Amino acid sequence: MDDCQLLCEAARSGDVDKLKSLIDSGADVTSFDSDGLTPLMHAAKHGQSAAVKALLDAGAPWNALSPSQLSAGDFAMESGHQEAFDILLNAGIQAELILGTIARKANENGGGDSNEQYLEDRVSFSEDKLMDSESKAVMMAWEKPLMEAHAKAVCSGGGHVLNIGFGMGLVDTAIQQYNPVSHTIVEAHPEVYERMLRTGWGKKDNVNIIFGRWQDVVSELGTYDGIFFDTYGEYYEDLREFHQYLPQLLKPEGIYSFFNGLCGGNAFFHVVYCNLVSLELKNLGYSTQLIPLPVKDCLGEEVWEGVRHRYWQLDTYYLPVCQPIEDEE
């Protein structure tokens, strides 16, 4: 029996002493067995929380994927092993916090703009989707109920509303139904912007369109009762950067929300990022409520015809509603 098999056997049985002995003798905790599973996946699947911790401490990757695209956290979640799940969740959050710090330092040292290529790309519109030149979906009609729920959240206080990223106009159409005092839209893609003007968005009395990347026009923005953020071609670092501006953009009683597509292809990774963004918003002074919305019925096979990347594959969408945390007297 090779070292990987021995590690997996010890992980399944929860024999931590055996695990540590194998690790000390040089066994590779990152290895996959013949089924494509790591020792950490076996420990998680069998709820062996002490073994999970020992393997993580020895450098086992929390985010390795099996052939069926499941991580150790997914196995713990599916098997209902809460303690093992919590250990893996914390490991994922801590790892991503560290990676975020590294990414910010890289950007400070001259890192490039993540969405520049998309802004130079051609996009195509159809009745039910907005696509880039590589047939990747920018926005799709199945999101309409989600966007209506986001609009309801950010418009619940009335007043002045800001949306970053127009796309197909789903959320902005929904926002208009609440007749806000002012409705500011920031859109960076030239073809999307031109289509907005062609379809009359520039003629609406309460609409103010600002063309450009939000990073470049943020100084032109005011303060708002509701803010929604949904950009394409950007990454978590861009969302994190936008959050740094919330204290100057969102009024004290305001509500903020964003399209929560973070790791929409993997249930455990999605939970990690939901927790990560909630933690980082809390550090900025905002509470985050995640409202579950079932989406399984919206996503039949026909929805993805002609689309290269299925950016959402989960049964539930967690809609974030973020508000400033009131100072305790």
TrEMBL record:
InterPro entries: Ankyrin_rpt, Ankyrin_rpt-contain_sf, Arginine_N-MeTrfase_2, RMT2/GAMT_Mtase, RMT2_dom, SAM-dependent_MTases_sf. One of its GO terms (biological process) is methylation. One of its GO terms (cellular component) is cytoplasm. ANK repeats lie at residues 35-67. Keywords: ANK repeat, Cytoplasm, Methyltransferase, Nucleus, S-adenosyl-L-methionine, Transferase. It comes from the Eukaryota. It is found in: Cytoplasm; Nucleus. It holds the Pfam family Ank_2. Coiled coil: none annotated. CDD domains: AdoMet_MTases (cd02440). The keyword Methyltransferase applies. Its main location: cytoplasm. This is Protein arginine N-methyltransferase 2. It comes from Turnera subulata. The lineage of its organism: Eukaryota, Viridiplantae, Streptophyta, Embryophyta, Tracheophyta.
